[in-house]
Amino acid sequence: MIMYLLMALTAAVVSYAGTWGARVAGNKLRLYRPIRSRDMHSALISKLGGLGIFTGFFVALVVASNSFFVKDIFRHNDAPWGILAGAIVIVAVGVADDILDIRWWIKLLGQGAAALIVAIWGVRMSVVPFIPEPIFLESEILQIVLTAGLIVTTMNAVNFIDGLDGLAAGVAIIGGGAFFLTAYWVHRNNPSTDNSDLATLLMAILVGSCIGFLPHNWFPAKIFMGDSGAMLIGLLMASAGVVATGQIGSGLYDRANGIPTIVPILLPFAVLSLPLLDLGMAVVRRTARGQSPWSADRGHLHHKLVDLGYSHRTAVVMLYVWTCILAFGGVAFAVFPWQIVLIVIIAAALIMAAVTAWPYFTRNSTRPGE
Fold this sequence. Notes:
Elements: H1 2-28, H2 49-64, H3 79-100, H4 104-122, E1 127-128, E2 135-136, H5 140-161, H6 167-188, H7 198-217, H8 226-246, H9 252-255, H10 263-271, H11 273-288, H12 301-308, H13 312-332, H14 338-365
Antiparallel strand pairs: 1-2
Helix pairs in contact: 1-2, 1-7, 2-3, 2-7, 2-8, 3-4, 3-8, 4-5, 5-8, 5-11, 6-7, 6-8, 6-10, 6-13, 7-8, 8-10, 10-13, 13-14
């Protein structure tokens, strides 16, 4: 645990400094994008924050490769460097979009290229969890296609929810923290395997990088993470999920106090429930209007909360709470009886739903003349 926390601390310190540097450079060079009607800010702000997050990830990964305990992850394993290569490509694509506003299909091609790099030279999905037995994928082409598709979907999900100051970074910290605790707990409680794990390391570094970035991005934001940061978070989250999924066939998760084999693949989706929900709703909404799924609008979940009357900060905190319920609820399924966990999650979700919708009900219960 100590080494993972040290890697997270390294990522946080470097990310904080890197984001400060990106902030200064962006302001000095006036690398701004025009304010759009759907934007929630009124001042010109640089979107180069993703460079700070990437710097934290890059330095922490290199340090980890030469550090006690966690360096075993890199021994005879090219997967971390394949993920890094994919990260470099997606950050470059994101920065180009943040500065030049490239066409959506060019960005999608860049996402596909980064995802394919990870799937070919990094990690790939070789097992699909299924009850009662997991399904093993023998076709390398199928493994690559499924992995790349998962990565692209996750990148866009995180990118779609990045609409309020501190929102995407906070969701990544909460979700990544839940993922980290589960992956660490599994390996810590399984005496028959090496306790070092790539998924655990990726989540520690991701959480640390976002912690270092968040002080610059908290309302009122001094810098945005942009597409480069949001897509990087999605790539790392999806890659960690693929790593965990690939360990199902080894029986690792079964041997760790009987943890269900379905948890490794469900946890990333639980962690990213809100971004994925927002992505799905956006695709349906835009397609129904005859628009491209990648066209921009002002119909995201965070927009709806602000339209209900919540302040910027309150809307962000409420989405944090929703993320906690879903992410740590997914973790709880791995530790506690599912019946109890399900009851608690449903109760918490109902309470939070009532709190979320309260302005709507109070507004509609007030009639003119009353």
